[in-house]
Write a structure and sequence with these properties.
Elements: E1 4-11, H1 16-31, E2 36-42, E3 53-61, H2 64-70, E4 79-84, E5 108-118, H3 122-128, E6 136-142, H4 158-169, H5 176-185, H6 190-202, E7 206-208, E8 267-271, H7 281-285, E9 291-293, E10 299-301, H8 311-315, E11 322-326, H9 336-342, H10 344-359, H11 372-379
Parallel strand pairs: 1-4, 4-5, 5-6
Antiparallel strand pairs: 1-3, 2-3, 6-7, 8-11, 9-10
Helix pairs in contact: 1-4, 1-5, 4-5, 4-6, 5-6, 9-10
Length: 383
Amino acid sequence: MSTVAVEVVYRGIFQRTLARNIVRSIVFAARKEGKIGTAFGRYGDSPERNGIPAKQFAVVADDAEELEEVLARYEPTEVDVTINVDDTMCKGIESWAWYGLQPINQLTKPNGTLIVTSRQDADSLVEDIHQKDTPFDLSIIKSTVSFSGLWVYKDDHTDARILGTLCNVCPQLFSIDSMLQALDEQGNGETKLASAQKAYDVATIRTVEPGEGNSEVPYKFELLGWQTMEEGLVIRAQGKGGGFRGGDEGFQPDRNEVFKKYSTRSMRPVINFETCIKCTLCWLQCPDTCFDITPDGLYDANMESCCGCGVCEAVCPVPDCVTMVSEADFNDNSSQWEAWQEDKPSYQQWMTALVDKQKAETRTHGFHHVGGYTEEIAASEDA
């Protein structure tokens, strides 16, 4: 066997325990077959931030010398398996601040595998995933709402199901029997072991061919080399801004063109401009200055600056005027106000459908009620 590397892409802080459980179990299972491995984390910035995409790696080799050779690098330059525990990150991540947008499959080897926990189908996910020049496999673990691990990690067998799937799609790593032994020795109960076995049994693969997927060229930035850096520490002031879209009315703040936050977002606000009372609260309270004041005194959220925190929804006094909906329902960052201006009836119909769909879902951006998890487990026992 050659060295096998696995990366787990997760949302910082909230899913760290989940990612750690996965990479630790990979190393323990490898040892059952006489192999040696190690697990370690890499973060988008320091310290690891709430919700920001981050990574943990597991590297397994036949012997210590081979492992040491691989780990002489800062991190693997390619991986056999990428595990994405939040399907909204299929659109790409900026886990390495200032490097630009990294496709979720950037490190995935040719003919490697991308594992995603999701309730979407393969075609929907492929639409978001950036194209590669080489084929790779996509394996979707169909999840319940809490099972996606969104924001707050819950011990709902997410790790066990991912690990069971991993044994199926990457058989050269170790057997399902070795994984079950490792999980058992870590104190996991019979039901969790059964979840891993079931995931192994039902795992499926969909090959994504070269040229399939999102054709967008991910944004990136040229970093200054040591010979081009200025002397001392220079922090350029940001301009105040001016009229909306460069006009004479409204207001649009200047924004740093290299500071984009949308890859951190799992949900985004949808605005009902018809019911907005122009109270200014969303504009004042947004921690990332996302809202632009339009010429007619409304507030248009700039989707390249929005991190999806949900503060605007929380402070809005008008029911359903600002509603956080799943990021999976969008493929771009276009202006909602401009869409409303262009065709108000069509916008209202689109917005109402999204809001109604969200109300029918229990997946949220972090707001839960006491007893909610117990209810979810009871409802998903047969999932």
